[in-house]
Structure formats: C-alpha cells, structure tokens
Amino acid sequence: KEIILRFSGLKMKTDEIRERFLRFFKKKGHKIIPSDSLVPFEDPSVLFTSAGMNQFKEQFMGRNITFRRIATCQKCLRTQDLEKVGKTPGHHTFFEMLGNFSFGDYFKKEAIEWAWEFMTKDLNIKEERLWVSVYIDDAEGYNIWRDIIKVPKNKIIKMGAKENFWPSDAPTEGPNGPCGPCSEIFFDQGPDVGCKKSTCTPACDCGRFVEVWNLVFTQFDRQSDGRLLPLPSKNIDTGMGLERAASVMQGVLTNFQIDIFK
Ligand code: SER
Hints:
Elements: H1 2-6, H2 14-27, E1 31-32, H3 57-60, E2 69-77, E3 94-103, H4 108-122, E4 130-135, H5 139-148, E5 156-159, H6 161-164, E6 165-166, H7 170-173, E7 177-188, E8 209-222, E9 228-241, H8 242-249
Parallel strand pairs: 1-2, 4-5
Antiparallel strand pairs: 2-3, 3-9, 4-7, 6-7, 7-8, 8-9
Helix pairs in contact: 4-5
The site of serine has 10 residues, from strand 8 and strand 9.
C-alpha cells in the first residue's frame, strides 16, 4: 500500500534511469563519456572524485575543450558525507551521479528546461510532486522557473550560499576555482512523511523532500582573496543522485530499499 501511495510515475529500475538519462542528453547533442576514476589524477584538492564536474575543471576554465556538451554517469565518494551514512535516507559511501555539462555553450534556460523535461516527460514524475530552490540573488533563475516552466511561486524556494552555491558556501569559504549559484529540484514524498507540519518546504531537513538534482550555473572563478571573477564563458554542471532518483521512481523512502541495493 505504501508503495502505491508514494509512487510517482513509471516504476523504473536504476539501470534504466541511468540509460534514459544518457540517451536523453545524447539526443540533446551531448557527447557521452565514461566516468572518471574514483581516485582522481593530478588534482591535489580532493582525495576522491566527489562530483561529476571534477574531471572538467580545466574545461570550466576554458581550456582543453573538445566537446561543448558532455553527459556522464560519475562514480563518486564524498568524505564530508561519511558521518551521515546510515543515518539519513540518502547519503552513501559510494554513489553514482548523472550529469550534463556545458562548456560555454547553453546556459540556465536550457539546463532548467531539459531537467524539467527529463523529470516530467521521460521519468513521468508528476509536476505537482516537484519543488525547486534558487540562490537568493538569482533573479534570472527564479524567473525561468516561474515564467517559462510555470512552477507556482510558493514552490520556488530562495536559499543562501550554503544550500544554493556550488561548492557550498564557496563565496566565503572557497575552494578557489570554478563555482556558481545553483538551483535544486526536490521530490515531495507527501505530507505524511517527515515533520508533518503544514509549513514544511525543501528548506526543512525532516526528510519529506528528496533533493534529486542540482543544476549549477558555473560562471565564476573564485580567487584566494574571495573575489568572484567571471570565467571566460558561462557553463553548466548538473548532478542528479542516481540512487535518490531510483528511490523516487521505485516509491521507497530510502535509497537503501532500491533495486541495486537489494
Ligand atoms: N557539482 C554539483 C553537485 O555535485 C552538480 O553536479 O551537486
């Protein structure tokens, strides 16, 4: 019964979500390339590959661009998340991240439109189950969600640099290098999940809302003195947690109940 109540659309295996994502972005002109190694080469800033964008730091700086549109499924490990593993529904030691990237090609409008198209048409998730967040100063992103995608205003949450900047809090905390404001897409598991307060939104950490996809508008190069200089061009870096997407598509409340864990 629980599965039927929470079920959002087509019931879909994790492998199929991965394939659909890559196929979708191939149709949108992206070159599909393999995941980078989980232990990155020649990057002294991280022990492990923690996001799809790690292997593209040079390209975000405007160097070594062979393809302007790329999509991947990246093997990831986040050392900063290890303390949370087993205590939350959606943090892992190892996980996979689906991502589409633009190096000086398309920007916010297409990234938002395609993410919405993939979730609502390809995965067939009902629009009313989705909420979004934008960086507090990102009026352009806000307007795209409100005016083009037609997300109701009460389902567009504005948040600060901790939640809606990549890397988190980069303007004040760093690291240096490519960064930018981001916009996230959340799946609402329903009012009977989490704190059960009528005022609950994705800003609440009760677990009702699953943060599924992060769209980063990578447009700055942070300097050691904290200045955010514009990058040579505007870029896109998105990351969808594959296991979280699978939990949504399989109607379960934690990532540990999805098919690949079983
Ligand atoms: N780099 C961003 C993240 O990991 C989007 O891919 O959330």
